[in-house]
Design a protein that fits this description.
The chain is an alpha+beta fold. The protein contains two helices and three strands; from the N terminus they run αβββα. Strands 1-2-3 form a three-stranded antiparallel beta sheet, covered by helices on one side.
Amino acid sequence: MIWKIADELYTLSRKVLKETNYSIHFEINERAIHVWIKKNGNGTGFDGVYDIYNRDTMKELSLDNYEAAKKHLERLLKERT
């Protein structure tokens, strides 16, 4: 499941990078996916930091973070027009 989520969030992240004024830091390994979203020129700090872990013990939090990251990226794409 983690790889499906990674593919989906990576695809959305690429679209945001191409079509908006936001930077995305996307990192994945066998333990987690990390998505950090920042508006270009926004100084320090991020507009969104989402960590999705590949652990059963953190499944509920990770699913919440996945949904939040997905909604954030989709909102940025929707607002670009």
